[in-house]
Amino acid sequence: MSYEVEHNIPNEPAAPQHPRRPDLSTFFSNLELVNTSNTQNSNATPMPADMRAVFITLSDAFRSLRQHGGGNLLDTLIETLEADAESPPREVEGVSDTFLDELDRVPTKSLKKSDVCPICSNPFLEDQYPLVVRLPCHKDHIFDLECIAPWLKLHATCPMDRKNLLKKKEPPPPPKEEEEDGEYDEMFA
User: Fold this and answer.
1) What pLDDT sits at residue 106?
2) Helix (H) or strand (E) holding 82
3) What band does 10 get if pLDDT is binned at 50, 70 and 90?
4) 3-class state of residue 105 by DSSP
5) pTM of the full structure
6) Can you tell me the distance from the alpha carbon of 164 to that of 168, in angstroms, rounded to the nearest whole number?
7) What are phi and psi of 87, to 5 degrees?
8) Beta partners for 142?
9) Does the pLDDT value for residue 151 go beyond 70?
């Protein structure tokens, strides 16, 4: 006899669930090995094998998401990560934890039922406590923080349009002040 029958629990068909995001603890452990931004040794560089492991670990996690769906963006991310694993950079070129903490949060009330994360393809509102962030490059580039954070820790670019997220916007030039008479006055120069 099953638990449900024994305790008189009605047998309701389960709602289709989207796949759970992969466990990224190995990725973040490997990332700690290669992240030299917190070290005081300016000559510290990660080993190429460790750098390769970071890219492969994240690629494998994204590949497991692809088995449950996922679109062209996920395929592109996997290809980029595999290319990076073949010839890893000398150091991690991603964003800092502070950058991730300061990303604009998208209020749950502003999300539509049809809004999905471009990486995992899960609807935002199916998560009990969604943590959705907006990238500064475009108002429609919104992601689950859990999905976008690993990418941004390795690449400081938006996965959708490849814009550099760390590039500072140049301030507009100051307005030119016109001289009152058109003449130069040394007294007020």
Assistant:
1) 92
2) helix 72-86
3) confident
4) strand
5) 0.69
6) 9
7) -135, 80
8) 134
9) yes
- Categorize the per-residue pLDDT at 62 as very low, low, confident or very high, splitting at 50, 70 and 90: confident
- Tens of pLDDT, residue by residue over 87-114, are 887 777 888 889 999 999 999 999 999 8
* Maximum Cα interatomic distance, the chain, rounded to a whole number of Å: 100
Amino acid identity at 98: T
Amino acid at site 113: K
Q: Which of 155, 118, 167, 161 is nearest to 31 (CA)?
A: 155
Distance CA 92, CA 88 (A): 9
12-48: b (≥16 Cβ within 10 Å) or e: eeeeeeeeebbebeebbebbeebbeeeeeeeeeebee
Nearest-Å Rg of the Cα atoms of the chain is 24
**169 residue type, one letter:** K
Q: Which residue is listed with tokens 């992969």?
A: 22
Sign of CA dihedral 45, 49, 55, 61: negative
DSSP 19: P
48: amino acid identity, one letter: P
**Is-contact 19 117, C-beta < 8 A?**
no
Could you tell me which residues come within 8 angstroms of residue 135 by beta carbon, excluding any fewer than 6 positions away? 103, 141, 142, 143, 148, 158, 165
Going by DSSP bridges, is the β-strand pair 104-105/132-134 parallel, antiparallel, or unpaired? antiparallel
